[in-house]
Amino acid sequence: MERLRIDLNCDMGEGFGAYRLGRDAELLDYVSSANIACGFHAGDPATMRSTVQLCLRKGVAIGAHPGLPDLQGFGRREMAITPAEAYELTLYQLGALQAFVHAEGGRLQHVKPHGALYHMAAKRHELAAAIAAATLSVSAELTLFGPPGSELLRAGAAAGLRTASEAFADRSYQRDGTLTPRDQPGALLHSAADAAAQVVRLVRTGKVLSLEGEDLSLQADTICLHGDGAHAVAFARDIRSLLNSSGIAVMALD
Question: Its catalytic activity (predicted)?
């Protein structure tokens, strides 16, 4: 019988200047892929370089995490951008991170839009197509991450890119398969044990319990743990431990 496996990804490099966010060095001991901020919603050249170096040292696959140009809002507020602007800001950020990865002797594995850009592209075909086109312009070997059944994944597939359906370890779901908005009660899971159980059940059965108490089917090629959470390291440790004890291998997509 083929052994179950899953990619566990985490957002990284989200400090800026003198400000540090997340415990990246510790988190990298538990995840298999990292999504590195590219300077628009968070991150800066020094942070990008040091995070790339950390990933290579720890054998973690590297992905780009482009966001909207909104440092103050951490890229989680929608902006009225055109498809051309979506293409340009994505291409700009991928190029910046790719340069650091290349300089350190590594390889860029995937692209995962951040925050509002991710959710906008999940619903709007023209933005999704622009992001997919920018990704393809950088490399046809990149994998585009997005929510299951989203416009983002459809656009990636139409462009000839590999795609990966992403689920979340530390977020709750609505009955329609969308994430519970962050401003609503119950949006975040506050128990590491609950998050770990959600991940293992999702990998084993392809199902997750919605906030309304209903089972829903959800494809997951990769599962995200947010690195900026107060208990992110404990979550990552408990999730990895339960996956290991359940016979589920944690491996990057490539």
Answer: 5-oxo-L-proline + ATP + 2 H2O = L-glutamate + ADP + phosphate + H(+)
Residue with tokens 């929608």: 78
Q: Directed axis angle between helix 115-123 and helix 125-138, to 10°?
A: 120
CB 173 within 8 A of CB 154: no
Show the low-confidence residues of the chain (pLDDT under 70): 1-3
Q: Count of CB atoms within 10 A of residue 18's CB?
A: 5
Count Cβ neighbours within 10 Å for each residue of 106-139 and write b for 16 or more, e otherwise.
Answer: bebbbbbbbbbbbbbbbebeebbbbbbbbbbebe
Contact 127, 89 (CB under 8 A): no
237: amino acid identity, one letter: R
Overall residue count recorded for the chain in this entry? 254
Tell me the pLDDT tens digit for each residue of 44-75. Answer: 999 999 999 999 999 999 999 999 999 999 99
Q: How high is the pLDDT of residue 159? A: 98
